[in-house]
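pasting for ref. prot 1 ->
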Amino acid sequence: MGLTNSNVSNLIAHMANGAAYNAKSLERLAFGAEPIKPATITRFFQLLRHGGMRNAKATFVYSMTATGPLFTSSAVVEELLEAEWVTKEGFDFSRCSNSWPDRVRKDDGTLATKGEQGSIEV
């Protein structure tokens, strides 16, 4: 299931107000497309766990339309709910996956350096 922080906030409101749900078959969650608030996601995980979710994997993605994924990190939800993963600023990801390689190429075909303009190449 792929979600934004706004989607999760809406689902939490329904779930917390007694909406019936069964999360037993949920195996994978992905979050992205807008800033992800750790407190919101943590509450969502807690509600899903209450609904029967076990051993689901969560993936967090930061990307740009022009380049695709720039940063992804995944962990089992149960691990994310452990105190050592959660900090005041968010989740402490020490395991990052490689994303698509990208670079900026100038009009003359050479690679641009920091601060130079050009076209994004993926």
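and prot 2 ->
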Amino acid sequence: MKSHLGIFFFLTLLLCVCTSTHASIVILKNGEQIITSHFEFDAENRVLIVSVNGKPEYFSITAIEKVIDDKGKDITESLVETSNPFVMRSKRKLPWNVTFTIAGNYVKPTGQYYEFVSSGPGFEGHLRIALNPRHALRIGFIKSGINYGNDVFLFLFDDMDFIVIPEPELSVFHYYIALNWYDLDKPIKPNEVRANIYAGIGGVSHTIKGDKWRVDANSEAIEFIGKVMEKETKFTFVGGFELEYSFSERVYLAFLSGLEGVWTKVYNVEDPTKTRHAIKGVNFRFSLGFTFAM
């Protein structure tokens, strides 16, 4: 009889030890302690799901004082870090680190600086480097097709001579560096549409080419002087909006819409010696192309 009682006592003790070994303890800030054999942590909603008598109970991470796992280890700090959205984003693998976009464009110039200049097609390339799940560094190089319209003549004064450049050619290059706001929290799946915006600074380079002629008072060409090539670069403010349609995780169709304000010197009409700077030209750009992610 005593031997049976001894065996029963030993088995009971062994069962208690096994149970305690596999039990976790959740201590709430109100002092309540919950012993459970199973719990899960929903990091996205910051909720600890605890099994109590076979039923799930939900506790916000802010209501928990301490969590001790079944090995007796305090894991409270790791749960708090995991529930922090900034920590989660910093540890999450980004869908891409670098993208390159090639596109065709159509640029519409407006404003006083672009009088007598017409629209035209061009091409462009953009590079993006991911900084974190919310931001990317964006660099762009754009060749716009804007040019002088037909029957445009540039008139110059040179040492009391009247100089004309008939039908000059205009070549315009744009470049910029900007901060891109982009949502990279979720993986990119096929057939998704995503939007992003950017803003920054840059420059626009204008090159004028043509033939210089000296003319008389009746604007009749009397002497060919030679070829001319004049360059002028202006500081710009840039901003834009982009839509991307994903064919796959690495290839997207990109539609871009951007604008560029040209910062230039303005002369006082009453006193030409007085000048100021202002945005006197704006380029509206619409582009369509492909983006390749790496």
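The first strand starts at residue 24 and ends at 28.
The mean pLDDT is 81.
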